[in-house]
Write a structure and sequence with these properties.
By secondary structure, the chain is of the alpha/beta class. It has a domain of about 200 residues: Alpha/Beta hydrolase fold, catalytic domain (Rossmann fold, 3-Layer(aba) Sandwich), CATH 3.40.50.1820. Helix content is about 40%, strand content about 15%. The protein contains twelve helices and eight strands. Strands 1-2-4-3-5-6-7-8 form an eight-stranded mixed sheet, sandwiched between helices. Strand 3, helix 1 and strand 4 form a beta-alpha-beta unit. Helix 1 packs parallel to helix 12, helix 3 crosses helix 9 and helix 4 runs antiparallel to helix 8. The longest helix is centred in the N-terminal third of the chain and has 14 residues. The protein starts with 16 loop residues before the first strand and ends with a helix.
């Protein structure tokens, strides 16, 4: 396949590949040799988010990062015989599972952040024999409760919030920059790369589904939570942005309770999108995670 849009090679110097899962062409990059690391993004990002971490690690690791259907450079389900694909985290997780199996990945280190957590950890709980380590950024893997969550989910997932996402590209134009402290990284070229997958309201549907999925995917999130024990023997590294307004100390403490043996690296001054605010520190932390056994 050809790339659906271009990105400067200086920013994204990787070869694009596609893996077909149930007729859906899933875009991914596969750089370097060594122990495999699978990087999973959230909303509204794509594999581009991990570009600097992969540049740092590909000399010693096999770095894989993919885009969920309808996001990044992956195919749009409506163009590939899946008009009913709903862009839910459960559907994305099954697609990622298909990629892991088709590429026959094993001894994988999984790095997740934002929606990559429920999506990727769901895969790991279903295929625990294929994963060896977890690197967990600012994310969660259980049903969310509380009034702030309900207000966010309903406020952005419906009505005016949904209209702003679809018509004004709210997630890319406003919420993405709000989750990055190093504003100097958001050059016109970088913002163009983040905008590129979502040129029209129809193309932005994947980003509009996620907010309401916080509440609507409770059953799936409960399934992921129920499987967390299957991963309790695996080494876990937490990399946590201290300035994140979405996932704070409460979520960090919960991860530490679930995996009391986990190592924790606080990314001081990093906001929600830790890959933009602390790429070099995350790469160093992953290297140390492997070196320390």
């Amino acid at each position: 396949m050809k790339r659906p849009f271009s990105v400067p090679e200086s920013l994204y110097p990787f070869e694009s590949r596609w893996c077909e899962v149930d007729q859906l062409p899933v875009h991914y990059i596969d750089e370097g040799k060594g122990p495999p690391i699978l990087f999973l993004h959230g909303n509204p990002t794509w594999s581009f988010l991990y570009r600097d971490i992969i540049k740092e690690l590909r000399s010693d690791f096999r770095c894989l990062a993919l885009d969920y259907p309808g996001m990044g450079m992956s195919g749009k389900p409506r163009d590939h015989g899946h008009p009913d694909y709903g862009f839910s985290p459960a559907e994305h997780s099954r697609v990622v599972e298909g990629v892991v199996e088709k590429l026959d990945l094993s001894e994988v280190t999984l790095m997740v952040q934002d929606w990559g957590g429920p999506i990727g950890i769901g895969v790991a709980t279903r295929l625990p024999e294929r994963f060896s380590r977890l690197v967990i950024g600012n994310t969660w893997a259980w049903p969310m409760t509380g009034l702030p969550v309900k207000l966010f989910s309903n406020g952005l997932g419906r009505g005016l919030g949904r209209w702003l996402i679809l018509e004004k590209n709210l997630f890319v134009e406003k919420l993405l920059p709000a989750g990055i402290n190093k504003k100097e990284r958001l050059t016109p070229e970088v913002m163009a790369a983040y905008r590129a997958p979502y040129p029209t309201p129809l193309d932005r549907e994947p980003t509009a589904v996620f907010p309401r999925a916080i509440l609507e995917s409770r059953d799936y999130l409960a399934e992921v939570q129920a499987g967390l024990g299957k991963l309790e023997e695996k080494p876990v590294q937490l990399v946590w942005g201290t300035d994140d307004k979405a996932f704070r100390k409460r979520e960090l403490r919960r991860w530490q309770e679930i995996y009391p043996h986990a190592r924790t690296r606080l990314l001081r001054g990093a906001n929600h999108f830790i890959q933009e605010d602390a790429a070099e520190e995350i790469a160093t932390c992953i290297r140390e995670f492997f070196e320390d056994g």
